[in-house]
Amino acid sequence: MCDDDVDAGFPDPKISRRAFGALAAVGATTVATGAYAANVVEKDVVIKTPDGNADAALYYPQGRGTWPAVLMWPDIMTLRPAFREMGKRLAAEGYVVLVPNYYYRGGKAPISLNFSNQADRPAFNALRAPLTAEANARDTKAYVEFLDAQPQTNKRKKMGTQGYCMGGPYAFNTAIQFPNRIGAVSSFHGGGLTTAAPTSPHNGVAKTNADYLVAVARNDDRTDPKSKETLKETFTAAKRPHLVEVYQADHGWMVKGSAVYDAAEAERGWINMVSQYQRALKA
Questions:
Q1: Which residue in 248, 254, 253, 259 sits closest to 8, CA to CA?
Q2: Among 32, 149, 179, 280, which is disulfide-ready with 211 (CB 3.0 to 4.6 Å)?
Q3: In this structure, are residues 87 and 56 in contact, taking their beta carbons and an 8 Å threshold?
Q4: Among 167, 187, 189, 185, which residue's Cα sits nearest to residue 78?
Q5: Can you name the residues that pair with 72 across neighbouring β-strands?
Q6: Are 19 and 263 in contact (CB under 8 A)?
Q7: Strand order in the sheet with 211-217
Q8: Is 50 exceeded by the pLDDT of residue 252?
Q9: Helices (H) and strands (E) in the chain, counts
Q10: Distance between CA atoms of 192 and 194, rounded to whole angstroms?
Q11: What's the pLDDT tens digit per position in 51-97?
């Protein structure tokens, strides 16, 4: 799952002909950063939390107006160029987007470690140690309140949240913590969504009022094929709108720079998410 399979340290410059053709077929007009960056404001911000000052990146469309807000939880490698690009792209769709640095207690992003390098694991563990469930809840509150304090945020519209890898459970927990504020949750190759623990994210779904998109990596599904069924049953019992699908790509496929990045399946996931947000946050 997230802790064992992600390989975020080595970019993969290869895009297959199949992936290129699939991208062309869906008309991905904003895949290249330059297609939307000029229409987006990007700011490096500092958010005061009970535990210190969290660095983050904030994005919103150029011009006057207000838009729904989205809290984007990165993968284990936290805030870095790949997620800055995703923040810009989503903002260009008409959202105010915040991408925080998980590890602000240990220093500013980007981090210089590589999770796929075993020699870096002790340093990673040290960075992650303070990020307990209680600490994450405090951070989440600070991030949601920061987004709602922005003049660009339309607070009459529900907020969305999306998570990648370890960010998947954080997205679920954001909806659990703020059931009346969060209207959409997207998880991409999220790990630990259906554990046996009472605090497993899926156990809190009934408390939420969100639309759910869960995109599962094929190798995660091979490891735990029951998880997707548990999620579907949970969403159905809670009467929450949902789409749970296994993608034909491996854990980490959504993030450029990952050795398993899959351009075609990443575009599919993005299109599904934008459709979900349009329905749940803008309607």
A1: 259
A2: 280
A3: no
A4: 167
A5: 162
A6: yes
A7: 40-49, 52-61, 96-100, 69-73, 159-164, 182-188, 211-217, 242-247
A8: yes
A9: 9, 8
A10: 6
A11: 999 999 999 999 999 999 999 999 999 999 999 999 999 999 999 99
Asked if pLDDT for residue 10 goes beyond 60, the answer is no
The whole-number pLDDT of residue 36 equals 66
Contact 254, 164 (CB under 8 A): yes
What single-letter DSSP state applies at residue 263? H
Nearest alpha carbon to residue 49 among 136, 124, 129: 136
Alpha-helix residue ranges (DSSP H) falling in 28-155 = 81-92, 121-128, 133-149
Task: Provide the pairing of β-strand 40-49 with 69-73.
Answer: unpaired
Select from 243, 258, 188, 248 the least CA-distant residue to 218.
Answer: 248
Locate 202 and state its tokens. Answer: 């899926």
Is 147's pLDDT higher than 60? yes
Residue 159, exposed/middle/buried by CB under 10 A (0-12, 13-18, 19+)?
buried
d(CA 150, CA 152): 5
Domains for the chain: give ranges and CATH numbers.
Answer: 2-282 (3.40.50.1820)
Distance in angstroms (rounded) separating the CA atoms of residues 97 and 100: 10
Tokens of 218: 């094929």
Q: Which two tokens stand for residue 50?
A: 């009970």
- The pair of structure tokens assigned to 261 is 């990045």
Q: State how beta strands 52-61 and 40-49 pair.
A: antiparallel
Tens digit of each residue's pLDDT (9 = 90 or more) over 102-134? 999 999 999 988 888 899 999 989 999 999 999
Tokens of 214: 């869960």
Distance CA 191, CA 218 (A): 13
The candidate with the shortest Cα–Cα distance to 94, out of 57, 56, 40, 145, is 40
- Write down how long the chain is: 283
